Amino acid sequence: MSHHRSSCLASIPLLLIILSFLLASFFDRAAGQIGVCYGRIGNNLPRPADVVAFYQQRNIQLVRLYNPDQEVLTALDGSNFELILDVPNSDIQRIANDSTEAGIWVANNVRNYIKGVRFRYISVGNEVQPSDTAASFVLPAMRNIERAVSDLGIKVSTTIDTRGISGFPPSRGLFTPNFRIFIDPVLSFLVSKKSPLLVNIYTYFTYINYIRDVSLEYALLTPNKTVVNDGSNSYGNLFLALLDTMYAALEESRAGAVKIVVSESGWPTAGGTAASVDNARTYVNNLIQIVKTGSPRRPERAIETYLLLDFDIKLVNNCSDFSRSRL
């Protein structure tokens, strides 16, 4: 099942006080599998040192950084956080074409900080689509980055979203033909290196595009009765249904051993249908409980998940720049 976004999600930068309101109750109870995405798009952003201190006060241990911002990496030095660091989409082709460039990138952004920063994964690109110029360069860039960090024990992956999957119920999940051409070689690399696949999952996008069929409670992960029955598995919230659709697609592509890390999830606080601070708080508090116990298809493992909450503008002035189809 695919669709086009029916409306734009406008997310304003969140002040520390609003973020504190959202995070006040759950990080102290987290089992270490929940992290946050540290976005740097916006005006009047807090100093990185203040953000790091804020995260430390709330027992946040996992952080995703979308580009190698030197000021942020310096602030993270000695913090004991574990970090996902992205290779920006704009750098992929250059790194793919020249292993020396990959070595320079790693030297500047990883080796310079390795004594004080714990690098968990490097994500080569974020939501690259098969039609993007960068698509054919993602795997060569992953290989070059992996060679450059092979002595450091850092896993290399890429980040996708749910535009490339279809199928309902979750057990029928599979990659669309165009996306499979792009992702299958990447999955072979991940299997060979025992690296995870990073996936951005937003129930909000499904809700606003299927508002007649998807209840707000199901999208907000509010504990309720079973909504979807799928053989021996049942689903009472949309997040786990989307996650298991992705796992089914991996299995269909002979990559069922690949672990999924949910590299972004969240709910907007303003600017769209059902966007509010209260709904965002409901979503993240429900999510924090859900990811502790895994999904019906993968009940044996907690779900490592990163929340997109802070200081980011997910969709801003030009909605067409972010037009996308998702489950």
TrEMBL record:
Keyword list, A-Z: Glycosidase, Hydrolase, Signal
Source domain of life: Eukaryota
The EC number(s) this enzyme carries: 3.2.1.39
PANTHER family xrefs: GLUCAN ENDO-1,3-BETA-GLUCOSIDASE BG1-RELATED-RELATED
GO terms for biological process, alphabetical: carbohydrate metabolic process
InterPro entries in UniProt: GH, Glyco_hydro_17, Glyco_hydro_17_plant
Name of the protein described by the UniProt record: glucan endo-1,3-beta-D-glucosidase
Pfam families documented for this protein: Glyco_hydro_17
Family: Belongs to the glycosyl hydrolase 17 family.
Keyword set includes Hydrolase: yes
Signal sequence, renumbered to the chain: 1-32
